[in-house]
Every structure is written in C-alpha cells, then in structure tokens.
C-alpha cells in the first residue's frame, strides 16, 4: 500500500460524504471499477444519510474512516459492539484503489479498536453468493459459523434482484496487549 493513511472515527458532519462514498463503492457505475461491487445483485442505494446517522447513534457503534495525507476518503468500516463480539460491516474501499491493501489496513484498525473495547471476536455477515468476497475474508482469518441471516427486507439497503441470504463469519481476537 503506497499512501500513508490516517484512521479517524466518523462524526455526524461526515455523514453526507460517507453515504456518497459507500454508495459509490457498492452500487452504480463507479462501483463496477472494483471487485466488491453489488450492482449486479441489488438495485437502489446501499445506504442513505438517515440510516448512517442511526447507525452512528447506536450503542457501542463507530465508523472508522481512512484518509490519505491529502484528506481524500479512501476507505471506511462500521463497527458495533455485540455481546462479546464486535460486528464489522460495510467495509468500503474506493473502487479505483481496491486490491492495494487498504481493506486489510482497515481490518487491522478494526481489530485493534475491537481489542481496545474488550471484544474477544469479530463477527461479519456476507451475501452468500459473493464467493470471491467470502474467500477474501477467509484469507483474513474469518471462518463460517454455519449460521445464516435473511437479507434485510427493506429497500433502504437495496432491492435484491434474486433471493439473497447472509452468511455469518467470525474471527477470534487475541486479548488486548497479547
């Protein structure tokens, strides 16, 4: 990874920029420049500003942003504390910069944050038909739990073009300082 990145927690003043950024990564034409696009699976936006604000207000939640030295947003990841685990969601890397290590850098920052919060494991959900994404997370230490979750039946998260379900994956975390 070439650029020096700074990780900061999102504030409510970042919501509009984040909504636009996340949608550009997951849906629409610009998302097709990267390998993590969902544009072939879902119509509509990935997130809206109101949903992002709700996510940021949730107990135990934060959204980490990765910016270049010039202040350009190149990545983000949502985290929320859940009964001994830290849920990781909406990992986003600028489409034109995917494959350069930013995603791994964000996962490391997320792991460090979770450890500081006392979480013993990370938990994610991934659309079951996203085989390349599932394989990437497995290379990062995540393992399938066998648990599935229905895809949200809410157009705020997109409109599926086919029936979708989410697979639950987890990764143990070493104790902070270990």
Topology:
Elements: E1 6-9, H1 15-26, E2 42-43, H2 49-57, E3 61-67, E4 73-82, E5 85-93, H3 102-116, E6 121-127, H4 131-139, E7 143-150, E8 159-160, E9 165-172
Parallel strand pairs: 5-6
Antiparallel strand pairs: 1-3, 2-8, 3-4, 4-5, 6-9, 7-9
Tell me what you see in this structure.
The protein is an alpha+beta fold and 178 residues long. It has a single domain, classed as 3-Layer(aba) Sandwich (Aminopeptidase). Helices cover 25% and strands 32% of the residues. It contains 4 helices and 9 strands. A 7-stranded mixed β-sheet has the order 1-3-4-5-6-9-7, with helices on both faces. Strand 5, helix 3 and strand 6 form a beta-alpha-beta unit. It is globular and about 45 Å long. The mean pLDDT is 90. This is GNAT family N-acetyltransferase. Keywords: Acyltransferase, Transferase. InterPro entries: Acyl_CoA_acyltransferase, Bact_Acetyltransf, GNAT_dom.
Question: Which class in CATH terms?
Answer: Alpha Beta
Overall tally of domains: 1
| Largest sheet properties | 7 strands, mixed
**Class of secondary structure makeup:** alpha+beta
**What shape does the CA trace take?**
globular
Major sheet: order of its strands?
1-3-4-5-6-9-7
Number of helices: 4
Rg computed from alpha carbons, rounded to a whole number of angstroms:
15 Å
Tell me the distance between the termini. Answer: 26 Å
Strand content: 25-35%
CATH fold descriptor? Aminopeptidase
CATH superfamily: Gcn5-related N-acetyltransferase (GNAT)
Order of helices and strands: EHEHEEEHEHEEE
Please estimate the helix content.
25-40%
CATH architecture: 3-Layer(aba) Sandwich
């Amino acid at each position: 990874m070439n650029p020096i990145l700074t990780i900061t927690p999102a504030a409510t003043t970042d919501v509009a920029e984040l909504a636009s950024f996340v949608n550009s990564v997951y849906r629409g034409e610009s998302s097709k420049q990267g390998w993590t696009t969902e544009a072939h699976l879902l119509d509509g936006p990935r997130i809206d500003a109101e949903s992002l604000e709700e996510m940021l207000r949730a107990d135990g939640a934060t959204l980490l942003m990765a910016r270049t030295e010039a202040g350009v947003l190149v990545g983000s990841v949502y985290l929320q504390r859940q009964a001994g685990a830290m849920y990781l969601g909406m990992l986003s890397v600028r489409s034109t910069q995917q494959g350069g290590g930013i995603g791994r850098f964000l996962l490391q920052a997320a792991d460090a944050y979770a450890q500081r919060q006392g979480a013993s494991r990370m938990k994610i959900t991934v659309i079951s038909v996203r085989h390349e994404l599932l394989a990437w997370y497995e290379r990062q230490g995540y393992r399938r739990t066998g648990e599935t979750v229905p895809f949200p039946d809410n157009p705020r998260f997109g409109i599926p073009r086919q029936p979708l379900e989410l697979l639950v994956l987890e990764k143990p975390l070493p104790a902070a300082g270990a």
